[in-house]
Amino acid sequence: MSVFDMAIELGKQLSNTEEYQKVLATQRAVAMDKDARAAVKEFQQLQQAYHRMQMMGHQLTPENIATLEEAEKKASAHPLVQDYLNAQAVFYEVVNTVNEKIQEGLKGAAAATHDQGGCNCSSNDSGACGGSCSGC
Predict the structure, then answer these.
(1) pLDDT, tens digit, 9 for 90 and up, residues 109-130
(2) Residues 42 and 73 occupy one common structural domain
(3) CA geometry: angle at 13 spanning 6 and 97, to 5°?
(4) Which Pfam families does its entry note (predicted)?
(5) Tag placement on the chain: N or C end, fewer CB within 10 Å?
(6) Quick check: 65 and 58 in contact, CB under 8 A?
(7) For the chain, what is the domain count?
(8) Which residue from 2, 1, 5, 9 is spatially nearest to 98, judged by alpha carbons?
């Protein structure tokens, strides 16, 4: 199985988690509620308009920023949007934990590759050889 196939499988497994299912459910709830949907849409449209302004080289004014912050505050104050944002935050924690595990695997793979070169750098305080192994 290629690393890309494993990534697809990981995505499928993540989509089956309770945390991701909660994101989908709360997202549907926002989409079904007229007021929540309107508040989110207003914020997103404003955000996109200001982004386009910045891309064209225009500086946002303090009034622009205040308007955007107010739209964000209004959208996030809606209980259904709050539920969605909370569900998203919980799911991102899961994804971050998965990323940490991937990093652990990478560090383990790097250490295994390093050990194969005949230098384990056990005398090196940092645990990294640096390439030459002369100081090991």
Answers:
(1) 776 655 555 445 444 444 444 4
(2) yes
(3) 85
(4) Com_YlbF
(5) N
(6) no
(7) 2
(8) 9
